[in-house]
Design a protein that fits this description.
single chain; 14 helices; 64% helix; two-stranded antiparallel ribbon; mainly alpha
Amino acid sequence: MHASQGRSAGLGLALASAFAFGGSGVAAKPLIEAGLDPLHVVWLRVAGAALVMLPVAWRHRDLLRRKPALLLGFGLLAVAGVQAFYFASISRIPVGVALLVEYLSPALVLGWVRFVQRRPVTRAAAFGVVLAVGGLACVVQIWSGLSFDLLGLLLALAAACCQVGYFVLSGQGTDETEPADPVGVIAYGLLVGALVLTVVARPWGMDWAVLGGRATMDGTTVPAWLLLGWIVLIATVLAYVTGVVSVRRLSPQVAGVVACLEAVVATVLAWVLLGEHLEAPQIIGGAVVLVGAFIAQSSTPKAPPSGPVAGGAGDVNAAGAVADGGTGPEAADRDARDAGLSAGRTAP
């Protein structure tokens, strides 16, 4: 009875996390179109979330001594890298397309496993990669000569590559008797990401007046501060925390399926709120990308036990789009999820 209730609660939290992550790009794009640089929007998101998570970071301050390399890697890849590239990409291409490109990360992880770690991959995993790549060709309508902005696609692919680094880092130290608390890792990852983005984005040159004005969502104006509040509190803090709790209550396979809903949520919200309509082949291709990504990530062979990353890597795991960059992407990441980082991202 209690186990059933726990799974139901976990599923509800996972759905909430996918919805929260999926709305990040939809809320960010109007701010970018209102005059904010994509890097400035990323900095506002990460710095604001880092401030909210400061009490958590203080509670887990021992991580600075135990897992410095892990915290640095998470901050650089899952937070700064995924978010910066994702937000830069949505300034040039539709939100749904950017997130679907980011969902190539599970397929790219298979490439890392096969060609870098030189470990065999299953036929199912290889089939998932082929599906994901074929679906992406439909999403970007490759038969029309890549009608989408090429730079925007490359930026989205860079976000996917950052998620790959996150997933690779996630596999380190999973056999440790005292793994790092995932919520603490998220808190310090946000702090590290905020510091890095402060140097890169130079927020002192931001047009702060934009935040006091209004932004347009498909003809409807909304307060800019309201969109920023959604990005920080809902699409970052709430999304990460609910993702952590949900993965601890669900199996990795179920969490992976739910994580794929992030791309669906993002696409639907962008369609309804931003007027970014996708054509039938793109919708079909997007569904194929998600199916292929799930097959690839669920068929990835488990890495053999290994020692911690230099400096003390911990047991950080993700289910796809961080998460990231959430995405993911949060993904990420939206895998190696057993220790409980968000099933979606690092996602965006």
